[in-house]
Amino acid sequence: MRLSFLAAAVLAAAPALAQDLRGPDAFADIADDSARSAALFAEMGKVLTHPRCLNCHPVEGGPTQGDRMQAHNPPVIRGEADFGAVGMNCTTCHGSRNVSFTGSPGSIPGHEPWALAPISMGWVGRSLGEICAQMKDPERNGGKTLEQLHEHNAEDGLVGWGWDPGEGREPAPGSQKIFGELTRAWIDSGAACPS
Amino acid sequence: MIHLTVNGREMSLDVDPDTPLLWVLRDELRLTGTKFGCGVAQCGACTVMLDGMPRRSCVTPVGMIDNASVTTIEGMEGPEISAVQAAWAASDVPQCGWCQSGQVMSATALLRQIPKPTDEEIDHAMGGNLCRCATYVRIRQAIHDAARTLEG
Ligand code: FES
Ligand code: FES
What we know:
The complex is a heterodimer of chains A (195) and B (152). By secondary structure, chain A is mainly alpha-helical.
């Protein structure tokens, strides 16, 4: 009985999860390429503006943390290498994977590597149109072509951490797979930006 | 089996890989100089050197650091730790002492990288080490004193 209840719960949960973030098919009926492209980016924006991404994409200073994007505690700074202060790098606390606390609920997030996005890739408080322009600009996106951007969104481990953030943190909407597919479809339709 | 070098001694440990390093140090190896304060990376009392860099041992499962080299306060050597020790003693930095092994580890790590840190650099590097006795002013002074000694 219990097993079948679990199976039902899993079956029910799967489509609900996918619905958070619509795949490219949901936009197929927008005939105009540029309008479809902008709509695809707006869907990607659900991920880009989620706290899992925003916390480490600040426009200045250090990271925020948690689902409410509070100040990082302990206090940390960006540092010259986007990796914290000399003497207190991110890796003083963050390991190569998420680590559950022993004896209390919650976890400390981790991944190898673990660092802030550079300032040029900060987008807290920016509009989706501004984030889009920034993401496409090799001067500000770390010299990436659109193809490399797709690879980053679809394959990068630290991007993927957003969907596997450890106990006590809400995952980014959808999945990295859908996010990658949206990025692909956005690029193929001309990589237009929402206004 | 987990393989670690602790204070220069190679060892194989038959422990659950999820066990935090802090537990292994204190309970298995009886290296009790490293303290437990919070268990959630908020206080710095459990700081050790992991492959030469400071690391909070309470959030470091040993399975994550197989083959690493760990140095605790008991195994620290070199000019920076000696200067820190002398400066700490000269200024009577500790009060209850609970946080101090972590403070000393962080201060030493800072001086190894910045021989003459500014107040700001000290505050940034030491910001994760809490002291419930509020010895912060003496800590900062002692780091400056240690830096002066190191200058020779
Ligand atoms: S005991 Fe590890 S940071 Fe507090
Ligand atoms: S000396 Fe008491 S906690 Fe720091």
